[in-house]
Design goal:
heterotrimer; A alpha+beta; B alpha+beta; C alpha+beta; B: Alpha-D-Glucose-1,6-Bisphosphate, Chain A, domain 4; C: alpha+beta; five-stranded mixed beta sheet; 5 helices; about 15% strand
Chain lengths: ~800, ~220, ~170
């Protein structure tokens, strides 16, 4: 193609002009006249509902409806769906859309109020009196395991799932190894916290007898099926549209939320559009959290630091319900392996219920925990053997010539865990160079001489991305020359309107400005899975390319006919099909689009102009061939044989204050490999954002429940997310080992930034604190100044004569 | 939807029975009742305006009182249609001697609510019904205890010989329970029935029919 | 039992408006729902995230912490008012596009207004000052790096002659 390169270029985003000027349309911007919704939510972590007295609310002006569980009928009165069953999930439980007799976490919705506006709705909620009888709450993994009380009466041991996966005989390998270590590692609960919370706007069209729902969701197509099923409507009478969405980060993949069912249901009952927009406290207490896990590690290794056997047992706190199954601990189990081949491996987890908000994937989805475990273990091995941390890693790497590498385990997509490609030694070399790893020990000493504590750490990860089962795309060239692309998955800021346009423009040979992209609208594309697991670019990107290639092929066939040339002699650039080497022999794509649709009627100038080209057979063949369709358009799907594995490594230089224990990140370096890059600037943006969330999770963020199950930091005042002052400048370098599994060679990049951050920072802080050689480790995240200060006191107690190396 | 309740009225059973069968009392005590027209013995058409908060509406209904054991029991059947929906209710009313010359009235209502008002949620529906019943009984009680007599209710015609009026309207100065001549004691009332119908139907949002039974 | 309404006059982005609102109506809700200016976003409703930041007589404020009745007679500038006079992108907005300073766009309006006010007072910041200037606004998508770059780029655009609408 002779056109300027579009694919692979850091092109500014097409969606930006409207978003920066206040012309975005998020769910709450759609209809200011719709009725509003608020909920009475449980103030108690575990209680039975004795009575609900709504009489106090009846005088609130603008009150339209008050609903409780008793008002729900049919499928709506059943528990919410279990989205991802698993054989090991032996005791799955999901909530009812409105609490039925029992509440199991603070924030569970009990009563739904519909009113003229949110102020009135909240007034009404304030006046509704629910009488509860308190039940003993189960809070924290220890309490869940002790099982003195049960979250679900019929699950007395609080165990939702138990799964063991093993390759080889890890216990034997560990026992036989030269050295053994044991580590206990925990990560605390955090949460996605998109800046825009959840929201649903629904309207029922009485004329068409159809329902349209706008939701701030990561999956419009699945939500549509859920709505049709639960509200008992034909699927083709339900549309779900995602408007602009202010971030998702995993929490918005859960569906259907109770509110996503109840708001449309109310809109139908009341015959008016209805909108629910949650406030920040609601998001804290009724959406989803993630990350809380406690791990016990046993590792056996040789004198070179090579892992011979690794055994990990961990507990996963899944909160009160399991709508998303056990994806998170399954991902921890498999992605813990990282870029390494640990000989024998055994992983066992127990997923437990507690009277807290449910746990579903948050960017990283179990990988941060797994990487923390593996990377801390490797650092411990390095320390034990007196080896450098990078050497130990290199010795355990899977090497490029071992690709594809089969771990003989099952990944989260149900398919074999086989790394398709990657070059970890090269990545490590890049990282060392980027962060000046080899020069650091001298810097550390110089700093120490001046009374400063600085340290460096690193962490490596592998991320399975582009999980199936499929995504599809539709590409159409209009008679105006506009190219319209639609795909079913959704967008929450990943720049899909730009990257998918880049792909289509490149494949078709049109300019980027001619292409518009629609995502997440079931009216435009109905078969899709959703945006999660770093899959959108891989899945929809390839689908767009495949569909565009089909369109290109058809365009060339028709143009060849019109130009009386061979399709092989044709090229498309700047939207014009040309005969190579024959200036003047050309036909614009928009004309080809007209020719593709043999209509009797000529509507516009283009159609009239097209009559100068006589295409198609004579009168003995039909105008539209048997295997053909009208229109210059095509649909295609990409369905991967398995996930494709991206990888990356981070290094951090931190400084800890000797007196205040404040932790400052001086440098942060990222090298990553997500295969072919569609738009390097967008990929980098994803990395920056992921690192910021990783920094937040490592140093600041912690969802805090007290022993009564009260979420004590349910606001931004007390749940600390990083501002610009907390996130370091991030230096990045790329490596591209294209994926052999898909036509474009793409691997996912959406979650990469967050995965190894806690591990890298823990490693760096340990280094700054001079813990090398002491056997003392940082084993729990997040770690803030107060905690570091406490740890220092403990370390001093435990080792009064510690050699300050 | 089933609704039961009771009220204490300060009058003897016969007086209460009469009041509840008196159209002049009814028009003045049924919350929101604007107009009552007799179409047969103990059978009326009525127009009621009602609502909760800012949501008001008007509807037309019928009520019929049936003797099931005067003066201690009667049945009220009511139905009404308005923009916000429909109500049909059967209310069994029982009157018993209470302490100090009062009457204890118990009602047992079975209502079928359709249309938009059927969509507002059972507890809200029931709450509004109870409250309106309460308003009604308070008004009847005021009548029985002889609150200041207002002007006689307007008779809007329909009876050429000038005998018993057929149409009763609420006097324009009368906002609530005041202003009724003492002694108009006749007629059975819906109790929960008409009050229920009036309150429920009046004022809900318009919309589609949605026949439902409460769970 | 209906709340009494109060008459509020305010100029928003140069246009005079008159609304009748209850005393407790937040300025953010008034702008978004009464005046239809949905560019200002609400991320937390407790004054921490800054997505709701507008300029009140030129100074950045959290519109979720103000009542509409409290700004009677004052001048409000929202993200919509940061456009160029001809309706195109203003310098700060253009800078965000140039530097990939946004991803989901939800926090962006609060940054645009904050930076607009900042650059008026500090037309030539260095990277550290730029980062400090945006230190009161949360972003969950970008990691701030490109927003810092956007501040510097906006300063550059302004120096090159684009004007910021008052």
């Amino acid at each position: 193609m002779t056109a300027a390169r579009i694919f692979g270029e850091p092109i500014p985003r097409r969606e930006d002009p409207r978003l920066v000027s206040g012309a975005g349309r998020y769910t709450d911007d759609i209809d200011a006249t719709a009725l509003a919704v608020a909920f009475v939510r449980s103030p108690s972590a575990h209680a039975s509902i004795v009575d609900i007295d709504v009489s106090g609310a009846l005088d609130v002006p603008g009150l339209h409806a008050v609903y409780t569980y008793e008002d729900l009928t049919g499928r709506l009165a059943e528990p919410l769906p279990l989205l991802i069953p698993h054989p090991a999930l032996t005791a799955p439980r999901t909530a009812y859309p409105l609490a039925r007799d029992v509440v199991r976490h603070v924030g569970e919705p009990v009563v739904m109020v519909v009113a003229a506006d949110r102020y009135a709705a909240e007034d009404a909620c304030d006046r509704i009196e629910v009488t509860y009888r308190a039940l003993p709450p189960v809070v924290g993994l220890a309490a869940a395991v002790r099982a003195e009380h049960a979250v679900h009466a019929d699950v007395p041991d609080n165990v939702a799932a138990h799964l063991v996966q093993e390759v080889g005989d890890a216990p034997a390998a560990i026992a036989a190894a030269l050295y053994r270590l044991r580590l206990d590692l925990t990560i605390e609960r955090s949460a996605s916290m998109p800046l825009e919370g959840r929201g649903v706007h629904a309207r029922w069209d009485e004329v068409d007898r159809s329902l349209r729902v706008y939701s701030s969701t990561q999956t419009s197509t699945s939500l549509r099926f859920a709505l049709a099923a639960k509200l008992e409507l034909p699927v083709d009478r339900v549309e779900v549209v995602t408007p602009d969405v202010g971030g998702g980060f995993g929490v918005k993949i859960v569906h259907p939320w109770p509110e996503e069912l109840l708001v449309p249901w109310a809109a139908i009952r009341l015959g008016r559009p209805v909108t629910w927009i949650e406030d920040r406290r609601e998001h804290f207490v009724s959406s989803a959290h993630e990350r809380g896990q406690a791990h016990e590690v046993e590792v056996g290794f040789d004198g070179e630091g090579r892992i011979l056997g690794l055994s990990v047992r961990f507990q996963h706190d899944n909160g009160a319900y399991t709508p998303y199954g056990i994806i998170v601990p399954v991902i921890t189990s498999t992605q813990l392996l990282g870029p390494y081949k640990p000989g024998a491996y055994r992983v066992e987890f127990t997923s437990l219920y507690t009277n807290t908000v449910q746990v579903t994937p948050y960017r990283g989805a179990g990988r941060p925990q797994g990487v923390f475990v593996m990377e801390r273990t490797l650092d411990a091995i390095a320390d034990h053997c007196g080896l450098s941390r990078v050497d130990v890693r290199e010795r355990n790497f899977i090497t490029p010539d071992e690709m594809p590498y089969d771990h003989h385990m099952t990944f989260q997509d149900g398919r074999p865990l086989v790394y398709d490609s990657g070059d970890y030694p090269a990545l490590l070399a890049k990282l060392k160079k980027l962060v000046d790893w080899d020069a650091f020990p001298a810097l550390r000493e110089q700093a120490r001489a001046r009374g400063r504590r600085v340290g460096i750490g690193l962490a490596c990860y592998v991320e399975g991305t582009g999980v199936g089962p499929y995504e599809g795309a539709h590409v159409r060239v209009e008679t105006s020359g506009a190219v319209v692309v639609s795909t079913g998955l959704t967008t929450q800021g990943q720049g899909h309107e730009t990257v998918f346009a880049q792909i289509a423009a490149q494949e078709l040979g049109v300019s980027l400005e001619d292409v518009t992209v629609v995502t997440g609208d079931t009216r435009r594309f109905a078969y899709a899975v959703g945006t999660f697991a770093s899959r959108a670019a891989v899945m929809s990107g390839n689908a767009v390319a495949l569909a565009a290639r089909k369109v290109r092929g058809k365009a060339l066939r028709i143009a060849a006919d019109a130009l009386e040339a061979d399709p092989g002699d044709l090229d498309i650039s700047a939207g014009v099909v040309r005969v190579k080497g024959s200036p003047g022999a050309e036909i614009p794509l928009r004309t080809v689009a007209v020719l593709a649709n043999p209509l009797r009627y000529a509507f516009d100038a283009e159609a009239q102009r097209a009559t100068q080209f006589a295409v198609g057979g004579g009168t003995d063949t039909p105008p539209v061939a048997e295997d053909d369709e009208p229109g210059l358009e095509a649909t295609d799907y990409y369905s991967p044989i398995r996930s494709t594995f991206a990888s990356g490594m981070h290094a951090a230089v931190v400084e800890t204050d000797p007196d205040t224990a404040e932790i400052t990140i001086l440098r942060y370096a990222v090298v990553h490999d997500c295969g072919t890059l569609i738009n390097p600037r967008i990929v980098e943006g994803q990395i920056h954002g992921g690192v910021a969330q990783g920094v937040g999770g490592a140093l600041y963020e912690r969802i805090e429940y007290d022993e009564h199950g009260q979420l004590v930091n349910a606001s931004f005042m007390d749940f600390l997310m990083p501002y610009a002052s907390e996130v370091p400048h991030i230096e990045t370098d790329h490596q591209q080992t294209p994926s052999p599994l898909n036509p474009l060679g793409i691997k996912g990049a959406g979650e990469a930034g967050v995965i190894p951050v806690a591990a890298a920072l823990a490693s760096a802080i340990e280094d700054a604190e001079g813990l090398t050689g002491t056997g003392v480790r940082i084993t729990d995240m997040p770690i803030g100044p107060a905690r570091l200060w406490e740890l220092r006191a403990r370390w001093a107690d435990e080792d009064s004569g510690r050699d300050g190396r | 939807m089933k609704l039961t309740g009771e009220a204490m009225l300060r009058g003897g059973v016969p007086a209460v029975y009469q009041a509840l069968h008196d159209p002049a009392v009814l028009v003045a005590t049924i919350p929101g009742c604007e107009r009552l027209e007799r179409v047969g013995p103990d059978e009326y058409h009525l127009v009621v305006s009602a609502g909760v908060g800012a949501i008001r509406g008007s509807y037309a209904g019928q009520v019929r009182l049936t003797d099931t054991g005067a003066p201690h029991a009667f049945l009220l059947s009511a139905s009404g249609t308005g923009v916000p929906g429909t109500v049909a209710a059967d209310v069994a009313v029982r009157l018993a001697d209470g302490p100090d010359g009062t009457t204890t009235l118990t009602y047992d209502a079975d209502a079928d609510v359709g249309g938009m008002i059927g969509g507002v949620g059972q507890r809200m529906l029931a709450g509004v019904a109870r409250r309106t019943a309460q308003e009604f009984f308070t008004a009847v009680d005021a009548v029985l205890t002889g609150t200041p007599a207002p002007a006689a209710p307007a008779a809007a015609g329909g009876n050429p010989d000038g005998a018993t009026p057929t149409v009763y309207t609420r006097a324009s100065t009368v906002a609530g329970t005041n202003g009724l001549p003492a002694g108009f004691l006749a007629g059975a009332l819906a109790g929960a029935g008409i009050a229920l119908a009036g309150a429920l139907v009046g004022g809900w949002l318009s919309g589609r029919r949605h026949g439902r039974r409460g769970r | 039992m209906t709340e009494p309404l109060h008459e509020v006059r305010l100029r928003v982005n140069g246009t005079p408006h008159q609304v009748r609102v209850p005393a407790r109506r937040l300025l953010s809700d008034c702008l978004r729902h009464d005046l239809g200016l949905t560019g200002t976003h609400v991320g937390c409703e407790h004054g921490v995230c800054g997505a709701c930041t507008v300029l009140l007589d030129g100074a950045p404020v959290r519109s979720c912490l103000l009542f509409a009745v409290g700004v009677d007679g004052q001048e409000v500038t929202t993200v919509e008012g940061c456009r160029a006079p001809g309706g195109g992108l203003g310098p700060v907005q253009q800078a965000f596009v140039d530097c990939h300073g946004l991803q989901c766009g939800f926090c962006t309006p609060g940054f645009v207004t904050t930076i607009t006010a900042y650059l008026r007072a500090n037309p030539d910041p260095d990277a550290a000052a730029a980062r400090a200037a945006i230190g009161g606004n949360l972003c969950r998508c970008t990691g701030y790096q490109n927003i810092v770059a956007s501040v510097l780029r906006a300063a550059e655009i302004l120096r090159a002659g684009n004007q910021v609408r008052p």
